[in-house]
Amino acid sequence: MNNYGVSNGDSNVHEKQVEGNDHCENGDGSNGVILGVDGGATSTVCVCIPSFSSSKTLPYPLPILGRAVSGCSNHNSVGVTVHISYPTENAARDTLEEVMAEALSKSGSDWSAVHAVCLGVSGVNHPTDQERILNWLREIFPSHVKLYVQNDAVAALASGTMGKLHGCVLIAGTGCISYGFAEDGREARASGAGPVLGDWGSGYGIAAKALTAVIRAHDGRGPQTMLTNKILKALSLSSPDELIGWTYADPSWARIAALVPEVVSCAEACDQVATKILVDAAQDLALSVKAVVQRLQLCGEDGNGSFPVVMVGGVLEANRTWDIGKEVVKCIQQQFPGAHPITPQVEPAVGAALLARNFLMKESTENYHS
Question: Basic and acidic residues bias: where (predicted)?
């Protein structure tokens, strides 16, 4: 057992949490709650947990008072399916407000019961992004509520370290990003700039390369590939020419990324084009982790120091013969043998809630000693 968490290969982390409102009272007479939100390009999850205000240790399994799921809350990608007259920021904001309200309702609580909120949202890449969301949250919650906004990668890291910000996280789902924290608080990130700017290890990146390979095979610029028949069948199309209309009818990231299983199936059948796409993706994902590790010196001076690498996202959880996650870990450990892969036992939304709790406890301690 290590200090970073437990890795047992079980990707169904939601089952590691206990739902229901039987735990609404914290045991110290208070009924306050904490909200954690994980918002990405595909879906948004909010969980409501007791505040545990006087408890230093957390119960296991962690009681989940309420849980809700909604659509995309990344203002950079939600807009491709939103009418042009409705600002993308409004669409993302509506999604976040709805999912929090539903989680609170399921927990039997209301806005006034909230002690702290942590939003881990993809697309939060700059302090101005954080401030914009914080200003909106201040309009919803009472003034006593502590509000925290982070990139969704930070919440994902916390889901593997149970709230401790140390080590590196790799998210590879619809999009991808690597994010890390050193013991002294320094942080660094790599990738996460979206498919246009080169996140080729993401689900979108893998699928986009597969679609490109089909078109190139069709017009003679590339080799023939099993991807052609596999993808056309999956989309109920009769010709590669129809892919053009299908792609641009709705180029949302999640819609394209949903084709990743077809690429994996072709690679498992030894299709060279599909295999190269996955190998390149694994190397690109490993490279993003290596960049963060090197910048933060997580591996120590000798390069052999131990540090956690939290692995999150559907691309890494394929659980197939051609396992992208295993290939990524192999690439990382060739350079950093002390890298310790972790599959979280709680979902990123719970990680966000644990972050909020830890931030709240830290502030309370600092205020007590000041």
Answer: 12-25
* Residue 129 sits in the same domain as residue 201: no
Reported as a single tens digit per residue, the pLDDT across 257-315 is: 999 999 999 999 999 999 999 999 999 999 999 999 999 999 998 888 999 999 999 99
Structural domain contains residue 288: yes
Region label for 45, one of left (φ > 0), alpha (ψ between -120 and 50) or beta (otherwise): beta
Q: Are residues 158 and 275 in the same domain?
A: no
Annotate 239-283 with DSSP letters as a single string.
STHHHHHHHHH---HHHHHTTHHHHHHHHHTT-HHHHHHHHHHHH
Q: Which pLDDT band holds residue 126 (cuts at 50, 70, 90)?
A: confident
C-alpha pair distances (Å), 298 with each of 165, 284, 289: 12, 19, 11
Cα distances (angstroms) measured from residue 33 to each of 48, 197, 340, 349: 6, 39, 33, 14
Range of the domain at 127: 13-162+346-369
114 and 247 in one domain?
no
148 lies in the same domain as 232: no
> Structure pTM?
0.81
CATH number at residue 209: 3.30.420.40
Whether residue 8 lies inside any domain: the answer is no
- 16 Cβ contact partners less than 8 Å away, ≥ 6 residues apart: 10, 61, 345, 346
CB neighbour class for 213 (10 Å; exposed up to 12, middle 13-18, buried from 19): buried
Cα dihedral angle (67, 71, 73, 76), rounded to 10 degrees? 160
pLDDT (tens digit per residue) in 236-245: 999 999 999 9
